[in-house]
Amino acid sequence: MRHYTIEGFSLTQSVAVMLARARYLIIAEMDAALKDLDITTPQMGILFAMQRGLASTPFEISKVLSVDTGLMTRMLDKLEAKGLLERSRRMDDRRMVDLVLTKKGGEVTAEIPMIAPEVLNARLKKFTTTEFEELGRLLQKFMEE
């Protein structure tokens, strides 16, 4: 089914622009809420993915978070400089890098569940439970290949 036409296309009403604006709102609000932890929303994603065991290498985290490897390297550099994670090369394959949360990184990551749900709930406050579930379902459908 074709939902857009050349004649009726409005950039500001396109799904792409609306999703980008929604993402920007969430990131801005989350960044403000994470300020005291001295991390950004993308950095939160890295720490949380590591803590939850979803990924332990830069490549795995790139896949989980849909971030290109160049940007991932820069974010890992910042997290390492803050003392939140450590990188180590594997002895059996020096090309592979493993990531481990430091004690400080674990402490910071433990604070995320107190912050992130509040930010997201504030953004979703006008949604009923049914609308929230439908939004999730529709986004999943949108991302299917």
TrEMBL record:
Transcription regulation in keyword set: yes
Q: SUPFAM superfamilies of this UniProt entry?
A: Winged helix' DNA-binding domain
* A Pfam cross-reference name: MarR
SMART domains under this entry? HTH_MARR
Record has tRNA processing as a keyword = no
Q: Where is the HTH marR-type domain?
A: 12-144
> Which key words tag this protein in UniProt?
DNA-binding, Transcription, Transcription regulation
GO-annotated molecular function? DNA binding; DNA-binding transcription factor activity
Q: Which InterPro entries match?
A: HTH_MarR-typ, WH-like_DNA-bd_sf, WH_DNA-bd_sf
Q: Which PANTHER family match?
A: TRANSCRIPTIONAL REGULATOR, MARR, TRANSCRIPTIONAL REPRESSOR OF EMRAB OPERON
Q: What is this protein called?
A: MFS transporter
